[in-house]
Request: fold
Amino acid sequence: NHPDIADSYHNIGTVYYHLSTYDKALLNHEKCLHIRLKLFGDNHSYVADSRFNVGLVYYKQRRYDEALSMHEKSLNIRLKLFKENHPDIADSYNNIGNVYKNLTKYQEAQSMYETSLIIRLKLFGENHSHVADSYHNIAAAYFYQSEYDAALVMHEKCLNIRINLFGVNHSNVADSYDSIGLVHYNQHDYKEARSKYQLSLNIRLKLFGDNHSDVADSYDNIGLVYYNQNDYKEARSKYQQSLNIRLKLFGDNHSLVADSYNNIGAVYYHQSAYDDALSNYEKCLNIRLKLYGDNHSNVASSYNKIGLIYYKKSMYNKSLSMYKKSLNIRSQLFGDNNADVATSYYNIGNVYYNQSKFDKALSMHQTSLNIRLKLFEANHPQAGINVNDALSSNNNNQQLVMEEKQYYNAYIQASQSGKFINAFIQIVLSGPPNVGKTSITKIFIDLGLSHDSPPTLVADIPDKMFHITTYVIVEGKKCDLMDVINRKIINAVELFIQQKYQQLNLEIQNISLDEKDIPPSKLAAAENVSIDSYDIQSDASYQLHQSNIVPIMPSSQIQNSSATNLDIAQQHIHTVDDAAANNKTTTIDQQLSNQAIQLSDETTRVSKLQLAMAGIYQRLRSKLSYESDILNQQFGKLLDFGGQPIYHITHRPFMSANNIYILVFNITQDIHQQVVTRDGQFMNMTYLEMMQEWLTSIIGGNSSQNKVNATINNHSDDYSLPIVILVASHGDCLDTEQHRIDKFKEFEDNLMFHFPNFKSNIYSSGIVFNCNSYDNTEATLNHRRQCCQKLHDIINGFVRSLPFMSSESGIPMRWYIIAAILHLSVGDQNNDDDTNQLDDIQSLNIQKIMTLDNVRTLIKDCELYDSDDELHNMLLYLHDIAEIIYCDIAHDDGIVITDREWFLKIMRDVIQLHNYNGGNLERKWEYRQVIETGRMSVDYINDILNKNNVSAKEQTIILRLLKHYDIICAIESEDDTSIQYFVPYLLQPDVKQFDLTQFNVSDKLYIGYQPAAIPYIPDGIFFCLLTSCLKQWNNSKLQLYHQCVKYYLKDDHYYLIIKKETSHISMQYCYQKFKDLQYSQRFTHEIKRLIHIDDKGPHFLIKNKLSQIVEQRLPKFKGALCQFYVKCTKCNQLTVIENNSYPDDSNNIYCCQCNMLYFHQSVEDWMICNTKLLQNQMQKWQSTETSNLSRNTLMEERIIHDTKGNDVKILISEPQSSAKSYLVMINKDVAAYWQDLARTLDIDQHNINIIEADNPLQLKNQCAKMLHNHYQEHGTNFTKLTLVQALFLAGLRAVAEKCNLCLVIQ
Reply:
């Protein structure tokens, strides 16, 4: 028991571990652990290390439960010993994640990986190999959960770090490209997958040469892509290259060599080259037999594939022998209840069937079916083909054709006349960042909380700028919206078939019917008449339930009741028309067949589209499982918006007028405190301002003035739309229930005080969620269930009361069919069963972003068009239920985005929350310019669009859409040589304020509304105002800092500063100072004259623009009066300026807050209301000599050149005057650069050397001497303009501006 002996065991164990001799590695690490436990006890870092090492060995031995136990013990020790942010703790979380991943517990694995990442980021920063590894592991967790977009983002982060650290040609970089290729492959984006695999291969070839296992793997991956693209020639070429390398490296008997033979065999099989396929499959089998013996799943797979080849060659005895060998191995390995075993029985049944051994075939198929029924639900596609179908006759095949015609007929009628009561509503979770929205979402939809699961990574995950989840409102159960829509469509078709069947069955049985007892809809169905207004869900007696869906062909029911009818159906299947003509008795099946649409080879393209959709739904019938009465439920589409203010302006495209909102707040935070980010940093907004931002935007953006009566908890009350439900988080941070109640009430009181007009919109739920992921006691879980149930009940109460959810007109079924077509166009298009149908759908050429005219053409092609009004209403509805984005720019010129996730990814790339992570320094510099200047270059945004494979046509539409929503605004230079985009919301809040020391600045004037009308001006309104002003005064001379812009009005030679100040907009104007007092007075008078032009001054223009924007964007406040305000010097409150509220000949103003009359500089600076005073002032100016001077006399426009030879437009007074009076003024600032100025004045180097020698180390004296000599030589020819031009050429423009020699205007 000596520490050195323990160290020796440790070292030996480590060596064995790297030699993959895990038994000996484990033995030595356990000996080391035993000694260290005796020496140090449980809580020691060495003991933690030993447990960690033992866990690593267990992991390699696939003893995952034991590995997990060891790693958790190691982690617990390290947590006690070290601070939270320690590299060993990060390693422990990482390795626990590895274990969970191999246990297929991918969410737990993701949680561990993300915790490890957070620690490593804090320790090492972004650019570190361990951080890259964490991103890689998180990507793997996302990948195994089929969250491919998220996996891509993580892999790309990993890749960028590795390139920064190692350069392009590194094995880790190749591995990243390989992983990214795999994700694209699983997304069926084969072009991108092949591109990434090729990049990986190129690096590996440079690093390792031709003969390396990684190179072989790359060839294999590329071959797999070609294989899935049906390019079998290229696939076989790549597989062969991989095989050649593996044979050289490993010899004949290696598992990877066997895999290569298997892959090549698969290619030959699909080329129908069965002999070549057989040869390769047999080579694969022989190697696997040598490596694994008889009883191995891979051996069974090889036998199965060889059996398939013999089956294709009609060599049934050999096929049967291979299939039986495969079955024997699978039965021994997996037992009877296994999907592969069922497949083997199924294959054997097919062989017996082709040998006409029907009894044996029936037995095999029945056995296969029984296994599948145990493993899967009855309607699962893997449940297998019905035994009778496998043994069906030609008549049965004709029966299936008739069934398809009947289904098609019913589908057409349902699509034309079927309607549903709306069952979908969008529910938006909103609120400040870091208040627990994501945790509440997970609790609410019964996902639970993961230990240390990080919050929404809004900027990193494409679907996390907002996260979308569909759930059943009453049950709170997660579901898939398209799955529900498909079920509704299928159910509607079933209803039409059931109606016809029931009606015709009554007729055939000669039952006397009294038509007055039959609903008109059923009579119409019986008579094959189009039903105009049948509401599918309104007739409860004919509502199909999951347990009693009537089959399309009710022959089984007929067989049970009447053998005669079945015989008639089979005997007369070819002569039903004759039977009908002769008025013979016909079966129900025959009459349904008569009604079916007869299809022919001349079927039009339009008909094929309808047939394609009918075929898809006919197949889906057997695949979709039906759960408890789901078709009668109502569904909420839950959107978890990112709370960062940077994203507020981007929410508008996704919002709907028919939403319910859940506003979440952190119950522990004071409403007046600054918002705290996830990393503990304080934002420059308080929680109150954040709530003001959300509530004003949400409520003001809804145009409805209606109220609804809702019953919640047996209490009925009236509420204004939209509904906002108030919910709190972090209840676990407060000690008692009473404390939580008090804090909730305090928040309520603050809202009522600051938002008196919103009281009828807000429902205070009193719900306080416990969001502590560590606390999963039964009491806490019960409390969460109670909170969820209460919130479900509240939402359900409001949903029942909303007009949107109870429209009597109903939702036409064709709207849902259009949604399904759009979904198929952007979703999974690789379902083998529906290949032909999907080809027809793809022929529609549905794009991710379309114009309204494109959509109109699409719907006409699908024969689902009714009118433009209905088209508009349909698009609004699909937008409301979050299936598309519909922007009605103009009723005839709208934009439709069919792939919301694609558009969201583009938005996420344009509006990045974190630093640009790419390796391109030019793009990094451009991104830095974005966050420092609020400007985005056209190259930057084009690069983003190109990376997202956006076509030129799509780019045009996207830019138009972004401009419409004021997300970007073009800034065009006067020479039209370049375009930048104005993006003020991306500006970092720490950008320095404007330096106005060289300017005369007016007093502030405020524009806004009375708090009772509009209590807050949201960022979205302010940014829209800035954009509108930019369009008004478009030029490149604008500057920004946080929520403030300085515009240059180039025609009037002054700047206008507009700033958001909570509930109002402040304005100031400023203009250049001049040392010449007389000239300065002239310039000031001219500027004020321009400001005071009746009601055409800039302040009136901005006031009008703000009023228009508010009416457009916040229709709830339409009619609110926008007014001018000044800040009282006595009480510091804003008071409105009204006409004649003060004497006509003074600058006094009356404050309605403190009831005082006081002088205010704003009145003189802006001359808003005092008409007489303004007229007197104008007369005073006109009496001076200034009135006789034009603006061009004051300042003359000149064009000079800068250091790069670019033209610079300036304003300069008296340009031909002598430069002498300005030489002393510039000497101090020029001193250090006097030689540069001397050269631009054409002073040769000899004279420069003389001046320098005469005044050693005295720069000011040297500069003064140079300027004096030059003036003595040139006299009056050395003009002010000459001096300014020389300064610009010498790179001393700042000196010219600082000393007021000129004013740069372009």
